[in-house]
Amino acid sequence: MSLGQELRVAPRRQSLARRAAVRACEALAVACGGRSWFRARHLRPPGLLVRRERVSHPSLPEALIGFRVVQLSDLHAGPFVRAGDLRAVVELANALQPDCIAITGDLITHRAEDAELVRADLAQLRAREGVFGVFGNHDYRGRREGEIAQRFRADGVRFLRNEGVRIERGDAAVCVVGVEDLEEAREIDLERARACVRPGDFEIALCHNPRGALAFVRPCCLAVLCGHSHGTQLDLPWLRRAGPPHPGLRVHSGSTAILVSRGLGSIGLPLRIGAPTELVVLELERGRA
Ligand SMILES: [Fe+2]
Ligand SMILES: [Fe+2]
């Protein structure tokens, strides 16, 4: 058994009736102009936030000080996010001049073919060291994740499916390490994902479901970037438990910061209450962890 299978989380399966109700809600909202409302309200500033997070390590090499990662999460292409809707998000992400861009899963909501809706927009992302991603639980619909990864790769977005990328800066290196989704992937393999990490390297891990984040915690892992919970999406007392558990926006374990993005998309209703859409900007600095 590969190291990582023990992280597997039982998928949250919805009844047929509940799925039908969600779809009906979405169709009604779209018919009422919900898509353009969501784009205007949540996919551009001021509704769209830039959340800045600094992560410190006492022995961060000079060459990695200021290394900047911009995270996009939970795009949920489908009823409310379609072609062209992420243009302002992409422009904002590029304007932040990232060293690397991380997409932490849930490209789509219901149908694998909906990934095509956001492909042209995401192809415009620009980062010095590249655009990387991991899949979220929704991205395995129809088991076409391999095809999605291939199409996006042609446009410069590389999905890390239990693999890592080593980025060298002078004598220093930071490895971006990504694993498949804990609920839906056929295989989760941390060891394979971390194979590129050499002694003395630092790591930034991408893991859609925050429940897997603790498995990455180690002195050289600076941050784990997660999504999935949408910050509860509708942060109201009687609705907080409707979606996956939200552990908080930033949690520390040892010297590793676990950053949970509230994401960009929406499920069920084109609405977010108390859980704004956001780009997370992670910047590395030298200092006390
Ligand atoms: Fe999501
Ligand atoms: Fe998810």
Written description of the protein model:
The structure is a single chain. The chain is about 20% helix and about 25% strand. The protein is of the alpha/beta class and about 290 residues long. It has one domain (about 15-285): 4-Layer Sandwich (Purple Acid Phosphatase, chain A, domain 2). The strands form two sheets. A six-stranded mixed β-sheet has the order 1-12-2-3-4-5. The chain has a six-stranded mixed β-sheet with strand order 6-7-8-9-11-10. Strand 4 (about 130-135), helix 5 and strand 5 form a beta-alpha-beta unit. It is globular and about 55 Å long. It starts with 15 loop residues before the first helix and ends with a strand. It binds fe (ii) ion (2 copies). One fe (ii) ion binds near residues 136, 137, 138, 208 and 228.
List keywords for this structure.
289 residues, alpha/beta, Purple Acid Phosphatase, chain A, domain 2, 6-stranded mixed beta sheet, 6 helices, globular, binds fe (ii) ion
Count of helical segments? 6
Bound molecules: fe (ii) ion
Oligomer: single chain
- Total separate domains: 1
- The CATH architecture assignment turns out to be 4-Layer Sandwich
What's the total number of strands? 12
Q: What is the share of helical residues?
A: 10-25%
Mean pLDDT comes to: 95
- The computed structural class is alpha/beta
Tell me the fraction of residues in β-strands, as a range: 15-25%
List the strand order in the largest sheet: 1-12-2-3-4-5
CATH topology: Purple Acid Phosphatase, chain A, domain 2
The arrangement of helices and strands along the chain is HHEEHEHEHEEEHEEEEE
Q: What is the radius of gyration computed over CA atoms, rounded to a whole number of angstroms?
A: 18 Å
Biggest sheet descriptor: 6 strands, mixed
CATH homologous superfamily grouping: Metallo-dependent phosphatases
CATH class: Alpha Beta
